[in-house]
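Continuing the batch. This is chain 6 of the set; chains 1 through 5 are on the previous pages. Same settings as before, nothing changed between runs. Recording input and output for traceability.
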Amino acid sequence: MCKRTEEVLLREKPDLVMVYGDTNSTLARAQAAAKLHIPAAHVEAGLRSFNRKMPEEINRVLTDHIATLLFCPTQRAVENLQREGITQGVYLVGDVMYDAVLQYQALAERRSCILERLGLKPKDYALATVHRAENADNPRRLRGIFAGLEAISRAWLPVILPLHPRTRKGTEVLGLSPNGVRVMEPVSYLDMLLLEKNARVILTDSGSVQNKAFFFRVPCVTLREETEWAETVEAGWNVLVGCDPEWITEATLNARPGKERAWPYGDGRAVETIVSLVRHTIEWYG
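Output for chain 6:
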């Protein structure tokens, strides 16, 4: 991945390379830029789950130590970087995911018919997503999560589960088929926005889904022991339960709204701020 990226950078000669998030490609692009002495900008810098067993955490840390510009979504992210000795080129810009929700939620309302297609009523279902390797590739954890989802479906609410390909592979290997859970193929971004906005509660191991639950003021149950979005937990909108089926069921049944005034993710203009800072940096380097 790095080699192919280097080939593109040598051919195109960009002024700056911008990377986002915490995937393997994020780190590969940042490494390639650094080796060729091209400034790199990391959007969503400074997030930490403090779980080094997660490949995403390794990608975050290494990318942040390579990047020239570090665009942080929250004050906590800025402080995480400070603790690691990173203070130059650090900017608190807000969360670009919130920008995207503001831009696309009205479009989702107009174009998506996912609720009608599935026969769902607003606030009358639970939405679940499972995709992280720590859950999807671990038989014990995956069985525990599915047992919790089954219990919720039996005791309280229909559970909608758009199934990630990684997780589908895990269920096929184990022969898992959660009874009573409505398993479906992955859905589009607009459909997912509408499902998230109208859910009674969301269960997930995804960082972005945790955030969107917070944006839409939907209680969230996180199927992990830690989160890089700790602000959602502190505000009372998110609870960490891991993979224990009893904890999953209890937390979901007791899910309640958190603090209404809590809002650590900026004003929805993160992208504008980033564009301005990137332009200034390119002019300075140029």
